[in-house]
Amino acid sequence: EEEEEEEDFGDDFTFEEAVEKMNGELKSLRMRRKKELYVLELMFRIADLKFKRPSNTETTAANAEEEKSKYINKMVKEMDVVSAFDRFSNHHAGRGLHYSTLLAFFTDFHCHRLTLDSKASLIVGMCKAKRSAHPASSQLFIIRMFSSCNGEEMYEMINYLQSKMINVSRVIQLQLSDPLLQKHFYEIVTEKAKQFSPAKPDLHIMSDIDDTFYHSGFGLGGPKYPKKTVFPGILKLFMSLKARVAFVTARPQFVEGATAKSLKRMGIQASVLCGHLSDSLLIPFAPQFSNQKIMARKFNNFMNYAKLFPQARFIWFGDSGQADIETGLKMIKEANLMCAYIQDVVLDDGITFKTDKKSRKMYAKEKVYVVDNYLEVALHMHETFRDLLDENMLYAVAKACFMDLKAIEWGSMKKQKEQRWKEHLDQLETINMILYTRFKFQAIDPDKVEPFPKEMLDTLTSTLGDDSES
What we know:
Blueprint: H1 15-26, H2 33-47, H3 64-78, H4 81-87, H5 96-109, H6 116-128, H7 135-147, H8 151-164, H9 168-175, H10 179-193, E1 203-207, E2 214-215, E3 229-230, H11 234-241, E4 244-252, H12 256-265, E5 270-275, H13 277-281, H14 287-306, E6 313-319, H15 324-334, E7 337-343, H16 357-364, E8 368-371, H17 374-384, H18 391-407, H19 414-439, H20 454-469
Parallel strand pairs: 1-4, 1-6, 4-5, 6-7, 7-8
Antiparallel strand pairs: 2-3
Helix pairs in contact: 1-2, 2-5, 4-6, 5-7, 6-7, 6-8, 7-10, 8-10, 11-18, 12-20, 14-15, 17-18, 18-19
């Protein structure tokens, strides 16, 4: 079988036939030595324009470079790059050289011809492939792809990868297992960031999930809202800020994908930075020790994420039930965090807040703001960071809060319903006064606000609830 002759197209084949033949060989059950050589031969022939092109195409010295770039990038777009990185192996003597040649085709021979989209596709393909047989060469491939980007390309590349991966920082950590290469990679990102500054720094929201975004009933707080309630106003606030969202949660990694899909159904394209199951298992027996482990894990996840975005601004959203205050204080002290907003959990009576006024004032001096609800967050952001939340956004968030409140099915939680409405109405009185006196906005009347569509909330809460219970 090794000696069996492969079909030879010579030079009489089109680009489409070459790519189809490459993908066919890459998907074959067994990737033998001659198959690897044949794929490489086709790749180099395409790069050298040695294939049949339209009759009206004339290659001259002037346009040869443009033609080569065009077809190489088209090849990357249409070929199965994941299978290419996955199927080339060194299980037999000498075959590791084929894999090295495959990588060198992109990094050494034609890197200068690759567009940003092609580089991103190759990096994503490498991350998806099983390349345990080539750890060193694969890591160097990723490093060299990133190194070939200029400052603006690096900025766009990281943002693109974030949109394609649930946790881009963890993927980078897994792909670059060598500590020295990890360090070198972050040095490259930092250095490239000095070459390009976006017109307006991106805002990244780093947020916990349970008892911050969603009342799962599995956090350390009392019954502030009915179980499986999305906190009133938070969806509209996140959308109004037009920020990149990353959820930094104590949830274990095996629910990472399900959590990301649940959030996406509500229109939130977010990264999910999970913790470890062992961090939470000890909560009933050693809560202080467990909270310290959770804080350390969240902080490390944040730092690994933040290193990918040197030009960005960050805001932390957490709750007072599970070391999020301490995490926020540490982020502000040791990283580039603007401030932290902490949803105060309630005690078992569902009414009394955990954090007293004296402690809230003390934390506020450190830019950690403990709040009752997201209406209070919106008001504070408008007064403190008006470039992030203007009067139109404040009005929209305030209205959305009451849409969400009206959609909540309180059941037997009459005391909590009365208290939560009172807290929101107290904040709304101040907001209405600001919006009218400064901007002549008509006052928001909660009685005239329609509730948020129940079916849309049910879609999210059912899936998020399944995640947290698992």
